[in-house]
Amino acid sequence: MRTLSMAILLAAVLSGCSSGKTPNPPVDDTPQTPEEPQTPEEPLPSGPPVTQGPPNVPEFEPAFPGQTRVPAIQTKTALQVTEIASGFRNPWAIAFLPDQRMLVTEKPTGSLYIVTPQGVKSPAVAGLPRVDGRGQGGLLDVEVGPDYAQSGLIYWTYYEPRTGGNGLAVARAKLVEVEGEPPRVEGVQVIFRMMPTLESTLHAGGRLVFTPDGKLFVTLGERSILAGRVQARDVKSHFGKVVRINPDGSVPNDNPFVNTEGAKPEIWSVGHRNILSAALDRQHRLWTVEMGPQGGDELNRPEAGKDYGWPTIGYGEEYSGAPIHESPQGPGMEQPVYYWDPVMSPSGMTIYTGDLFPEWRDNVFIGGLSSQALVRLMMRNDRVVGEERLLTDLRVRVREVVQGPEGALYLLTDATNGKLLKVTPR
Ligand SMILES: [Ca+2]
Prior knowledge:
The protein is mostly beta strands. It has one domain (48-425): TolB, C-terminal domain (Neuraminidase, 6 Propeller), CATH 2.120.10. 5% of the residues lie in helices and 35% in strands.
């Protein structure tokens, strides 16, 4: 594209057509096509990728240039990191209430707190159902309903203890605050249950994303154990899927598998491993990042009815080093927009639209657990063109990243004394 526009510009300069002066006599009779206006674009980043270990599966080649290890970039703005609150036991998610207070979930305890912008924490919200808080389960994401101002409804995901095992569930309830009493939820409704029930404390998935048209995306892991993993591409199972539901749990009639015999009608996309990061872009399209095995974390843009390949294709291997995939690519399955080998262990995601950091507009931010970083991706035409690992000097596992109402980024650190941090320009 750049080469082409340069060629057009060069031709135009040589022929004198774009100068506004009297044109030179044409050298031939070929009609001139009018030049399309060109928006000047920043040159693409170049140079080595971010510092990271060697790939676990070097024999797997990317499907296209720029699918992994793009050039490292560096934020120019100096950052200020402020601790808003601490003492959360492995906190997992943040959601902003309209009055700028935050809902914060605690994974293993199943507790939900309301935190003021100054860091004052409420008593735990009463009335939430019990969670299976072992392993990667517990109380996970929380979102404020799109009609919260009228309904007071909040939505959350959790690992639900069940007869014969456990499974991810989505619930909603009205948040009620009465002066002098602890906050509580009333009228709890479970609006979605991941099926089948299976005993596993791993790969819960659990991110919630509302879309402006009033639908709710839920990301679902494949449970990690083999009995779950083999269901990730099977439309009769919820494991390893993105699902799309209405806020009352009913199925939108334009979902891709509503007319497929035997399919779970909530399914939006299939073939995912464990999506712990999900966000909408400016065009309201869903983007996700899923945990790979040893190697193979993936950025995807899940589209209706498409198959993202796990466990048939991918860029990683078993933790033992044994192979999982014959090939990282295969027919009928989508390639990730970007992948990481070694992994950075994604959790939490936001696509920046604020004004505090103009240089971050439309960049993708992902929490990094094992990488102990806030991962920043610069995008161009739906491809990753630059990567940065921010806040590495803090040496914290970043579980969640959310853009606050004033354009600051808010983070949760994954620790037994987890912190709520705010990132602003210094
Ligand atoms: Ca995939």
